[in-house]
Design brief:
This protein is α+β, with helices and mostly antiparallel strands. The chain is built from four helices and six strands, in the order E-H-E-E-E-H-H-E-E-H.
């Protein structure tokens, strides 16, 4: 099992947890082997965010998106990622991370998993950090 802490700003964090946002856009992607099971832990960042780990979801696929995608791909990505065309075009090239099965948890401060600051985009978590989060989810 691979666990990743993902920094996400509002309103995107809420859109992920509601199931509306099915693709997350990132400049890079984790190196995965076929069959790897990946849990994304959502850290809500930003001025108006909770500034804590508020949920999790499964990463089911990653794919690269080139600077000039065909129109149908562009529109589909905008819908799945809950972004405007301008936002998406300004962010290309990038990766789309397909996400499923969001679960909200009671907010966990980073200090509870031994961290002092969130990742700028994302980072791997240790098994011990993930165990702490799993235990919190079941409380």
């Amino acid at each position: 099992m691979i666990n990743i802490l993902l920094s996400v700003r509002r309103p995107f964090s809420e859109k992920i947890l509601s199931g509306e946002k099915k693709w997350e856009l990132r400049k890079n992607a984790p190196r995965l082997n076929k069959g790897d099971s990946v849990t994304l832990w959502l850290y809500e960042s930003g001025q108006y965010g909770t500034r804590g780990i508020i949920g999790k979801c499964r990463l089911v696929v990653t794919a690269g998106l080139r600077p000039y995608p065909p129109k149908g791909i562009l529109e589909w990505t905008m819908k799945q990622a809950c972004v405007t065309e301008e936002h998406l075009r300004n962010y290309l090239p990038c990766y789309v991370w397909g996400i499923q099965d969001p679960v909200r948890i009671s907010t966990v401060p980073l200090s509870d998993i031994g961290m002092t600051r969130p990742p700028q985009s994302w980072q791997y978590l240790t098994d011990e950090q993930a165990d702490i989060l799993e235990r919190r989810e079941s409380e």
